[in-house]
Amino acid sequence: MKNNKIIYLLIASLMLIFSACEPIVEEDHLENSTNVEGVTLKATNTTAGGNEIKLEMLTPGISGHWNYIIGKALTDEATIVFPVMGTFNFAYRGTLGAELFEKKVAVTIDKLDHPVPAEWGALLGADAVKGKTWVFYKDNPEANGDGPLWWFMSPPNNPDPASVMGAWWNAGICCPPSDADGKMHFDLDGDANFNHYETKTATPTKGLFTLDVAGKRLIISDGAKMLGSAAGNADGVYTIVELTDNKMILYLNNNEANGTGWTFVFRPE
């Protein structure tokens, strides 16, 4: 009998110990601090119609970032210099507390009164929202004994223009890529859009582009590939050798297909 009482006491003691060790859980329920309509965004030209834009998210309790098409600002307030003219919708993406949201604010740029790299206008044309189409420069006056230079093997690890245009093998003449008669289109219609067309009438493969003027790079991403990418690299990063209104020369210093340099020459459609 005494043994039973001792056992009961031990069981009771253990139950108290285990119940005391159970954590106290406080459930936090996320709630929205406002709705999308309650988020106040402001985009202001710092000069009338100018291309320096002040972006502001004015609603307390909201966190997120600005996406201004060609870049991001990880703060509620930022001042940017936009490189082209037109009407654009800049987006603020963030959380209301319990759910994610995106809201846009429009701004119109009528003049480029703050300096911008000329490469932006060259790549996108006079109407950046509409954009610009590029094709291979098959009648390029720069040629070698085989013919015009537009897609060819070149010396590796040397982005100097003279080296880039020194063809080791003028592959475009004998062995062109499958998209030799295709095209590619760049625009800023809501995003930095890139479309690749295998032929002039094909359904495009859509992606995005990044124009890194300071780094002299053009980057193609999000599932699309550069025209002539049979000699491209998987990362989609190309060195800009020349980018003007009438010509674009891109270069890879060590392409994955051959382990050599490769040069791509384009012109507007």
Describe the structure.
- The chain has four helices and 18 strands.
- By secondary structure, the chain is mostly beta strands.
- An eight-stranded antiparallel beta barrel has the order 8-12-13-14-15-16-17-18.
- Strand 17 and strand 18 form a beta hairpin.
- The protein is elongated.
Keywords, separated by commas or semicolons:
269 residues; mainly beta; eight-stranded antiparallel β-barrel; four-stranded antiparallel beta sheet; 4 helices; 18 strands
Concise synopsis of the structure shown:
The protein has 269 residues and is mainly beta. The chain is built from 4 helices and 18 strands. The protein has helices spanning 2-21, 118-124, 161-164, 171-174; strands at residues 41-45, 52-57, 63-67, 72-73, 77-81, 86-95, 100-109, 132-136, 143-144, 147-148, 151-154, 183-187, 193-197, 205-212, 217-221, 237-243, 248-252, 261-268.
What is the secondary structure topology, with strand pairs?
Blueprint: H1 2-21, E1 41-45, E2 52-57, E3 63-67, E4 72-73, E5 77-81, E6 86-95, E7 100-109, H2 118-124, E8 132-136, E9 143-144, E10 147-148, E11 151-154, H3 161-164, H4 171-174, E12 183-187, E13 193-197, E14 205-212, E15 217-221, E16 237-243, E17 248-252, E18 261-268
Keywords: Signal
Organism: Flavobacterium granuli
Signal peptide: 1-20
Shape: elongated
Strand order of the main beta sheet, please?
A: 8-12-13-14-15-16-17-18
Question: What portion of the residues fall into strands of 2 or more residues?
Answer: 35-45%
User: What is the tally of beta strands?
Assistant: 18
The largest sheet, given as strand count, sense and whether it forms a barrel, is:
8 strands, antiparallel, barrel
How many angstroms does the end-to-end distance come to?
101 Å
Class based on secondary structure composition and strand pairing? mainly beta
Count of individual helical segments: 4
What Rg do the Cα atoms give? 29 Å
Helix content: 10-25%
Question: What order do the SSEs take from the amino end to the carboxyl end, as H and E?
Answer: HEEEEEEEHEEEEHHEEEEEEE
Unreliable spans are none
Give the overall pLDDT as a whole number.
91
